[in-house]
Specification:
434 Repressor (Amino-terminal Domain), 2 domains, elongated
Length: about 180
Amino acid sequence: MKNNIGLFRKKNGFSMQELATRVGTSQQQIDRLEKSQRRLTAEWMDRLSKALNCKPTDLIDFSTEDRVVSKVETAIAKVIGAIETKFSNMVREFADDEQYEISFKPPKKDFGKKFFALVVEGGAFKGYPDNSELIFTQAKTSKSIASLQEKPADFAAASGKNNSYKFQVGDQIFEGQLVKSIRNE
């Protein structure tokens, strides 16, 4: 659903970072909210309206002129964290209020229905630039085993020709194949 966050942000003379600071979140989250890539919940409307000096309902764009019903099949991936650096490929787990879902056109190859995504943050990851969202199949998850001795730099290494990766996110290991990248500028 379209919204008026950007309109009110500019009207108040705030950059995305300034609004993020006032709301207590990241610039990246404000960008996603403005682009309707993250659901505008009642909690977000309350927080944003206080910072933007407007009513929560003012943030919703009720116009219908640009709405198009899409018949293209879409899939959903939950963005669970960020690959923080181009040097160690460490994953920073997002807090529950930072996690969000993105919809995308599923790949032609049948990978199943479960996907997860990570944001590239703090440099490039395998040639994907900062702020790219990388979507992986969710082949399996397992609990982290303390005896795993992989080095952080090797943990997210690809294994084989199928671009299969393992990431430790919190206390879980996520395994899957890279199926799509969404490059954000």
